[in-house]
Write a structure and sequence with these properties.
Low-confidence stretches of chain B: none
Largest interface: A-B, 26 and 25 residues
Radius of gyration of chain A: 13 Å
Number of helices of chain A: 0
Order of helices and strands of chain A: EEEEEEEEEE
Low-confidence stretches of chain A: none
Number of strands of chain A: 10
Number of helices of chain B: 0
Oligomer: heterodimer
Structural class of chain A: mainly beta
Shape of chain B: globular
Structural class of chain B: mainly beta
Distance between the termini of chain B: 41 Å
Mean pLDDT of chain A: 91
Amino acid sequence: GAGVSQSPSNKVTEKGKDVELRCDPISGHTALYWYRQSLGQGLEFLIYFQGNSAPDKSGLPSDRFSAERTGGSVSTLTIQRTQQEDSAVYLCASSSGGLAGDIQYFGAGTRLSVL
Amino acid sequence: GDSVTQMEGPVTLSEEAFLTINCTYTATGYPSLFWYVQYPGEGLQLLLKATKADDKGSNKGFEATYRKETTSFHLEKGSVQVSDSAVYFCALCPPYNTDKLIFGTGTRLQVFP
């Protein structure tokens, strides 16, 4: 597709379950970002992948959160043992080169609700 | 650390009114500055950007000028429309650490006919 694709668009899960969120970046984009948008917290950076370099995981809030990017394209964000405070919209973005002035293109997000 | 501060909303205007949404930043060096918009039910979209001091970004009638002396990037539009109702986010990308956007908290704009 032409844009960043995220799935599922909505996910409802029970506290303690694991969830996987998927992101398909724009074809050819080497940089991929995950952000979280939650009430009261605004938009916060989670993790960044650039090419074959080691990802910057500095924004991950706890060790229950992990992400991988296979083949330099699709990325999966995994949240283990979900908690109610994990409820948020998880946004994925990609850019062509990861430079400061590059435009990050965002997907529509996955709305996660933890009951 | 680097940060972005923008005015709290909601901002409520009548159609054709003048819009200003204030944004100021704290950063080392010369960051790139962005305004993103999120329409109801949609993802974030880039509205405009500026990458160096005194640059003016513009798009869809919106403008913002990169002011280094006041560390500001205020968003303006001369005549808003109902279709401009959305949440607007100011953001910066540090020049030394290009792996993230640092966002403001967002400002909701509501335009009534």
